[in-house]
Every structure is written in C-alpha cells, then in structure tokens.
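Dear colleague,

Thank you for sharing your sequence with our group. We've completed the structure prediction you requested, and as agreed, I am returning the results in plain text so they can be pasted directly into your records. Please verify that the sequence below matches your submission; if there's any discrepancy, let me know and we will rerun it promptly.
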Amino acid sequence: MAFTKDSTKKKVIDRFDINLDHDIDEQYQYVPGEALRGHILLVLTDTIKVKSITVQIKGEASVSWEDSSRETVRADEVYIDLTYDVTKTTPGIPLALQKGKHKFPLEYVLPLNLPSSFIGKYGSITYVVKATLKEDKQMGMSTTITSEPFLVLRHLDINSEESLSKQKTIKQEKRFFGTFAFCINGKVSATIGINKTGHFPGEDIYINAHIANNSPRDVRGVQAALVMNSRFNAKHQHQTNVQVVNKRRDEWSLEAGEARKWTNVRLTIPPYIPESRLDGCDIIDISYDLQFIVDIASSKGIIMKVPIVIGTGHTPPSPEILSASGVPNAQEYIPNGKTHSTVDPLDLTRIPEDKKSNRVSTSFVHDVSDVNANLEEEDDKGKEFRRPMVPGETRQNPLYSAAEN
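Please find the predicted structure tokens below.
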C-alpha cells in the first residue's frame, strides 16, 4: 500500500507497488546468499516529473523493554542498509514519465551471515524493501512511499551433530516423609525417554515414559510440553520470555500402587517455528526444552527437562517409519497390584469405569509466566510461528500474536 504526502486532489499515481519474484509456494521467504529480485510498479494517469525513485533494503534486530525504574532499555543491530535510485537520473534534472505503466527492476544478493526473521515479546528481527518516489512539482515536492516485508530463514544443519540423533533417557523421583524426617512414607518415580534430541519443524517427538505412584499422594496427571525460551540482551541486561509451543496432557489420575506408561506418544513440532540459537544475531537467543511434568496432589510435583535443538532445511520422514518400533500414541495404565498390562489405546473395555472419562488433550502455543504451574487445561489458540506471507501483505507479530498478553 502506497502512502502519498500531497495535497493535490487529482490522483495521478494510480499504483506504486513493490513486487518480489519468488517461488509461489515460499512466498517471500529467502535464505542468506539468495538473490532478492523483483520490480517497482508505477501506474500513472497523467505525465509527471520524477526527481527520484529510491529503494531501501533494510534488515535489523531491535530489542527493548522498561526496567524497574521505568527507563527504556534498548539495543539494535543492522544487517542490511542499502539505498539506491532505480531511475538513474542525472542529479538536478527531473525524469519525465508518461501516462501508463512503468517497471523498474531491482536485484540484491542477500549476505550469507543473516539471522532468521523473528518477532518476539521484547524484540524482533525484520527485513523490508521500501520504495520512495519524489515527484517534482511547480508548487513543491510530493513524496509517495510503499514497502514490502520479506522473511529470511537461515539454515541450521543438525545432521552433522551425531549426538542429536541419539535417544535420551532421564529418571527422577520424589520422596515423601512421615512424621519423622528419617521415615520415608513413599515415593513417586518417573522415567522419560525420547527418540532423539535434534528435530526439524513439522517432525514428531516420540516419547516413552513410565510413572509409578508408590506414595500416599494421588498423581493428578502428567504433561509433556515443548517450550521455547527467548532471551533478549541489551546494555548488560536481559529479559526472558517462556512460551509453550505444543503440549500433551494425560488426565489419568493414579492412586497409591498404580502406574502409567507412555509408548511412542507423539508431540508434534509446528511446521513454522524459529530454529535454535538464531545464529547471526547477538541480542536475541532461542533455546528449546522438552518438559515432562508429573502433577502430584498437595506437592510441587516432578519436573524433568530435556534440551531440544530445532534445525531447518529437512523433510521429515513419514510417521510409519518413525513408529515402526512401537505403537504410536499408546498410553498404558497399570492398575494396583499389576506391573505390566498392555491396553489398546483405542479400546477402553478393560479400563476401570472410573478411568474412562479421562483423556489425553493436545493444545498449541500458549504464553505463560510460570511453565511449572501450567497444568490446567487451556483453550486451543492455534498461534503460528513463521507462516508464509501473502504477496502485498504487511503484518505485525507473526510469531507472537499474543505475546503482549
């Protein structure tokens, strides 16, 4: 959308747009080192004299927040700042453009060290092409401005890191004491394992878990969540933001002597999600954790964390291949007095009647101030991270549309 600073009532400039040439399926999403090509489209209803049509290509990161004294803390990084005149006119001599359609080509090879686009609660990394037309008139100067944002997606190769393709298992238990501190009254133990710690957007994390309740407390549920941790740095200070990207909660309660087992339960990584680290940017950093939480009545519960690395540039294998070693999305209930009793996840006939109302729920992208307390059911919000843009679209906050809540 073009913006004109002019008091003239007659509309001479019918269109002033930036059109970028790119694969229609990727819609203005580029990788560092790729050529940014397109043209400036100018449609006139009458002849005008143009002093200049300048194009500015700018990429920058900016973070800001208010500290405890209400002072603004801010930091900026500039990755691209290029301005040039596409008309190539002689300085001081206006260019006469006739009525009709005019196209001015533009081309720029993006630097190799650009960080990926990102918009968060306290900062962003953005890229934009802006065109400014200055029209020479008898009564002064008229300025028309149009702009078009584009996305950069930097490649993070995790295939070269062998450790990220290996399985990871951790164990933890919580003990409860009786009247005397040295008298153990029982414990809740949890073991969680995942198929690997390096993943790509759109892939599933396969989770195996075993929870045993050998305590007088009830286990009210278990939850697995993929959490994104964003850190914003400025002037030797920092702000952090924690966001639950996706979660899966098992509402099955466990009484004393009961146990619960997950077998290849899938937690999906959204297809448009920033890669880990945000290489190339020094003022914003991103990391991910898989958090596994056991909710215990009248207790802080068990919280287990596995660091996850999200890469880019990969086509996920089919679910059939990933689930070949077990039944996907199978949760197994082990009743009191039994240690192994496999239950078909779709067959509730062998589950005690008081357990049939419990079910597994999944929800996407929730902002939370305390992830450890995030054990209650929440509404699906379906927020997206890095969706492709429609040509001509200008948008704000594509990754954190609820970040200010």
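Summary note from our side: The chain is about 0% helix and 50% strand.

Kind regards,
the structure core
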